[in-house]
Write a structure and sequence with these properties.
By secondary structure, this protein is mainly alpha-helical. The chain is 70% helix and 4% strand. The protein has helices at 3-18, 22-28, 32-38, 43-46, 54-79, 83-104, 116-129, 144-161, 169-186, 190-199, and strands spanning 134-137, 140-143. Strand 1 and strand 2 form a beta hairpin. Helix 1 runs antiparallel to helix 5 (54-79) and helix 6 (83-104) packs antiparallel against helix 9. The longest helix is centred in the N-terminal third of the chain and has 26 residues, at 54-79. The mean pLDDT is 91.
Length: 203
């Protein structure tokens, strides 16, 4: 069993058992105020295990299924260990929520859930390896790099508008940026490879 599939199974089991149980969801959610006041740092991780509903869960886990397998395999080839992929995913959960914590640590009423930050990291790591790979976005085929620019632009715009939509766009943005920087830090040669892929994709 791949790590991606194990993460998907665990996330689905925990998410489904917390549907319609707001008390359990609150216990696991990213609640910045509780992190600050009660030192509940575990929330940086557990918030990625709960989702609002089947659509929220399904979108994240399907995305992780399609992109996670490739990144897990790529990391295994690069680093000869599955621990890098596991560390990548777990760190993405934490890093993507740090700006949210800083912004809302004094807001008792704010909390957020979902693995979107880590999933965004996986997708953008994929873009780093395969910028011109055609992917389907709501059944519309487009190169991964084009989707990346559209996604970043939309996320930055929505993040600046605020959190009124109920979606944590800050986590999406910082997760995406982490997905790019993590592989480059541990294997800088990926940078020139990415540039070469961008410039010579028709070769």
């Amino acid at each position: 069993m791949t790590l991606s599939l194990a993460i998907i199974i665990i996330t689905c089991l925990i998410s489904i058992t917390t549907f319609n149980r707001p008390d359990k969801m609150d216990e696991l959610s990213m609640w910045p105020y509780m992190v600050k006041e009660k030192k509940q740092f575990y929330r940086f991780f557990t918030s990625g295990l709960v989702h609002a509903d089947y659509m929220h869960l399904g979108f994240n886990m399907l995305t992780l299924y399609f992109f996670g397998r490739y990144i897990e395999s790529a990391f295994l080839q690069l680093f000869d260990s599955k621990l890098y992929y596991l560390g990548f995913y777990l760190l993405a959960l934490v890093v993507s929520d740090i700006p949210t914590y800083v912004k809302y640590k004094n807001d008792y009423g704010y909390r957020t859930i979902g693995a979107s930050g880590a999933v965004s990291a996986v997708v953008f790591a994929f873009i780093l390896f395969n910028p011109w790979q055609r992917i389907g976005v709501f059944f519309i085929p487009m190169p991964a790099i084009v989707y990346g620019f559209i996604y970043l632009g939309y996320t930055i715009y929505m993040s600046r508008r605020g959190q009124g939509s109920g979606i944590n766009h800050d986590a999406h943005l910082w997760g995406a940026l982490f997905g790019i920087t993590f592989p480059l830090i541990f294997e800088p040669r990926i940078g020139p490879y990415f540039i070469d892929q961008l410039l010579h994709h028709y070769r």
